[in-house]
Amino acid sequence: MNKKITQLKNYLNNSSIITILSGAGLSTASGLPDFRTDDQGFWTKNKPVHFGEFIQSESARRKSWQNNLAIRASIKNKKPTLMHEYIVKILRKNKLNTHITQNIDGLHYLKEIESQIIELHGSVFSASCLNCFKKYDPETFYKSQVKELGSTSCSSCKSGYVKTATISFGQKLNEKYIKKATLASRRCELFICLGTSLKVSPANHFPQKAKATNANLVIINREPTPLDAIADLVIYDDLDNIYEKIK
Fold first, then answer.
1. Domain range holding 232?
2. Over the stretch 41-75, which tens digit does the pLDDT of each residue have?
3. What local confidence, expressed as pLDDT, does residue 247 receive?
4. Active-site residues: which are they?
C-alpha cells in the first residue's frame, strides 16, 4: 500500500491538468444512502420514477417530486467529506482541472469553482420546465404547486411539466455536459476515479477516453471495477482513508 500511495502522490504532484470522476462513494462517508447497496432502505422507500412514467402520469410526477423532497431531507445537515475538500483544493490549483460527478447531492458544489464542476446526473437543488426550460426553485415549486395544487405544470408556458434537474432512468443526459466531460477527459494528464463502480454509461467512457490520449488513470474504490485492468494505479480503500495518507 505504501508504494501505491507514493505513486499516487507522484501523479498528483507532477500532473499539470487533472480530471476527477466521482460516484456515490464520495458522499457515503457523509452519511448519504448509496443507491447500489441501499443498506439504509432509503431507495426502497423512495423508488425512483422512470422518465417515461413521469411524462405519462401526473401521479408519477407527484411521486418524483416527493422523492426529491425526501432526498433533500436526507442531505440536510450533511457536510462535505475530507475528500470533497481535497478535490476543491485540486480544482483551485488550475482552472483546467475538472470534477465530473455522478452525484446529485450538491456536496461537491462551490460557486467559485462552478465552471469546473460537471454534474452529469444533475442536481436536486434545481428544477426546470421540460418544454420551455424556465427555471424554478424546487422547494418553492413543491410547496406552491405540487403540494398546494397537486400540479406539476409550468406556470409560464402552461404546456410543459416541471421536473427537478436530476436525470431519471430513461432520460437522456445533457449533451452539453457530455461534450464538456469528453474535453476534460481528453486534455488531462491524470484522470482519477473516486468512489465509482464504473458500471454506468456514459460516465465509464470518460476514463477510457483519458487513457486513449495517454493520461495516467487512477482508480480508487472499495471494490474492483470493470476498468481496473487498464488503470495505471488501482487502490481498494475508503476515500477518507486515502485522504489521510495524501493530505
1. 1-32+80-122+175-247
2. 776 777 889 999 999 999 999 999 999 888 888 88
3. 86
4. 121
